[in-house]
Amino acid sequence: MADTLILGIESSCDETGLALVALPQSGGAPTLLSHALHSQIDMHQAYGGVVPELASRDHIRRVVPLARQVLSESGKSMSDVDVVAYTKGPGLAGALLVGAGVACALGAAMGKPLLGVHHLEGHLLSPFLSADPPEFPFVALLVSGGHTQLMRVDGVGRYELLGETVDDAAGEAFDKSAKLMGLPYPGGPHLSKLAANGRADAFELPRPMLHSGNLDFSFAGLKTAVRTHLVRLGWLEQADKLAAPENQAVLADLAASTQAAIVEVLVKKSLAALKSTGLKRVVVAGGVGANKLLREQLDRACARRGIRVHYPELHLCTDNGAMIALAAAMRLQAGLATLSTEPAFDVKPRWDLATL
Ligand code: KG4
Ligand code: ZN
Q1: Residue 131 lies in a domain
Q2: Is the CB of 188 inside a 6 Å radius of any atom of ligand 1?
Q3: CB distance 253 to ligand 1 below 6 Å
Q4: Residue 103 maps to which CATH number?
């Protein structure tokens, strides 16, 4: 029997991602046939953050050529595709509408059913495409640019929210602190690079809600503390001071201290979630999951406790089409997919994963 072929389209923010995933009818694990990505980072960098209107227009330019690319790289044509999956939410409304619009058009023109996918479910399931996939149940630490959540995951579609940020996400804490330090957008990887030369104990920074007794996070105060240190140094919004070679060592110390504060909270809260659920497996997903210090510290802490840690492949940590096609495949396999042949522009810019 032929495999079910799924075309995945991701366009929720500043990356256009397309992918083809095959779901074996024999019941085996879905496999990634090809994927292609265009990042808009260079375009948004001049503005210090994502400009939604520019993001939407760029998705329009990229999505069809990228779809052609994944099809030709895997030797398939659109008529071979069985399901068109797209990111339905959460994300930027205009950006989501591009992916949904293209999916609807392809579906209508080719008579293919559509499947709207939750972006965070894509992140959460993305480690299933790695060489060392997890097994259910597990604790998931979802750390993207817009979300910081701890979930208990018992299976596909069985997600229980354990805790989440009450204000900024961890990715936002990285990005906003990096911006204050004069680093380019998106700040996370740049701050992390600068931090490699700094001392993590050089600046005192808060570990927000570390002892709150629950599994929630708060990162807004951290950015304010970074700002206060920069005011004291006389460097706030002083591009020349922030770029001056003689100030780079102190800036690296501030970056290292910031990264250490974010990572310590993420690691300790993840351990608390593992303890309270009694689970022995944790999956880290979302862009911040690419952070080297987070991986080192979580790996070390979990190794001591006999806990397995799973990550997506590094190139699948940030937004991509593969995770969307994969989530669609796993939903189909679990009998949870609602396929539609009706063109539906029903994107959900705000959408709670626990309601799936
Ligand atoms: O999951 P993602 O690609 O997009 C969203 O769905 O939001 O996550 C993007 C976030 C950004 O905040 C970015 O700064 C952060 O992930 N990020 C990192 C690293 N790589 C990406 N943060 C810290 N260290 C990194 N190496
Ligand atoms: Zn994402």
Answers
A1: no
A2: yes
A3: no
A4: 3.30.420.40
Residues 6+ apart with CB under 8 A from 268: 207, 210
Are 165 and 121 in the same domain? no
**Whether residues 321 and 206 fall in one domain:** no
Q: How many domains does the chain have?
A: 2
> Domain span at residue 262?
137-311
Q: Find the ligand nearest to 15 CA.
A: 1
127 lines ligand 1 (CB under 6 A): no
Say whether pTM exceeds 0.90.
yes
Residues 344 and 225 in one domain: no
Can you tell me which atom of ligand 1 is nearest the CA of 169? 12
The closest of 126, 75, 169, 156 to 320, measured between CA atoms, is 126
Ligand 2 geometric centre to CA of 170 (Å): 12
Q: Is the CB of 287 under 6 A from ligand 1?
A: yes
Is there a contact between 52 and 92 (Cβ–Cβ < 8 Å)? yes
pLDDT per position in the chain (356 positions), as tens?
A: 689 999 999 999 999 999 999 999 888 899 999 999 999 989 998 888 899 999 999 999 999 999 999 999 999 999 999 999 999 999 999 999 999 999 999 999 999 999 999 999 999 999 999 999 999 999 999 999 889 999 999 999 999 999 999 999 999 999 999 999 999 989 999 999 999 999 999 999 999 898 889 999 999 999 999 999 999 999 999 999 999 999 999 999 999 999 999 999 999 999 999 999 999 999 999 999 999 999 999 999 999 999 999 999 999 999 999 999 999 999 999 999 878 877 777 899 999 998 88
| Structure tokens, 110 | 């080719």
Same domain, 306 and 325: no
Closest-approaching ligand to the CA atom of 143: 1
- Nearest alpha carbon, ligand 1 atom 24: 291
The answer to whether the beta carbons of residues 105 and 341 sit under 8 Å apart is: no
Q: 199 with 296, same domain?
A: yes
| In a domain? residue 132 | no
25 CA to middle of ligand 1, Å? Answer: 35
